Amino acid sequence: MKRRKRVISEQGLSFLDAISCGFGAVILLFIIVDHAVLQVNQPGSESQMTRVEALEDAVLDEKQALLMQQAALDDVREATRLAQAEAERLRQQIRQQRERQPNLEGEQAASRTRLQQMQAELLALESEVAAMRAQANDPAGDAIREVQGDGRQQYLSGLSVQGQRILILVDASASMLSETIVDAIRRRNQSEASRLQAPKWRRALAAADWMSAQIPAGSQFQILSFNTQVRAPHGTANRWLSARGGTDISAAIRGLRQTVPADGTRLYAAFDAARALQPAPDAIYLITDGLPTQGAQARRGAVSGAERLRNFNEAVARLPGGAPVHTLLLPMEGDPRAAGAYWNLGRATGGSMLTPSRDWP
Prior knowledge:
Oligomer: single chain
CATH topology of the domain at 158-298 and 306-354: Rossmann fold
CATH class of the domain at 158-298 and 306-354: Alpha Beta
């Protein structure tokens, strides 16, 4: 049987070609995608990506640190601006203060000097307190006489009687009759018995009695009264007496109680008598009421405050060297410079100055 020849359709061949091309394209796409995945997962590519990320992190950190430094720099600039403004304000204030007080540096130096003086005075007071405590604990330093005062107050007077040669100077001028000038003039014209009973003079005698009772038993002493002249109530003015036994001390106090205040005050003569004592005194105790009215030369008439101060300085020049001067001041009206002058004398000589209450001792 004779076969029929198959006729190929052109339309069917084109569809098959299209299908084949599409399938080939799909296969090619899979091959390309798989190759790219392989390229990404290779070890070399992963290391590079890690380095890139590390560099990006470092860049970010540097940027953050730079921003922090910039903020800190801004804070420093602001603080500097404020400090400069404050410094300018202070400079202006200092200029104003200097204009108002041109002697500010001098005042500061004076304040420092005064502070040093106060510190020195404090050390001197501490040494004096220590010496008083030592004397209180030393049986050899006990008072050889007992004095019972009229005062009701009990306190540390700050005055310690000590030394090997003790000189007590008692002002016996007419001003020792009263605390006021008018009353002193009135009492000056009264009888001797009345003047001996003057309250102020009795206070001075009680103070001298108290001092004499504190003299150590093994010391030498002398008690001198002075106005325009110097007198020794017992013994000779230029010779020392012995405190041992208390006999000479009692005699000197009895003689002092018979002294009648009169005339002016010549401290120059008193300090000159202190210089005449040999050996020189190592402690001087002065009972007075103000600056002297007489100088190196006796004179009459009223004296001004400046003249009284000049008389005082002349007397101080006659003091024997090395002896501290302890002053017991019974103030007189109209003599405001006395306290300062005797205070400076005590500080210069290593002594002291006290103004006791009316009921002491």
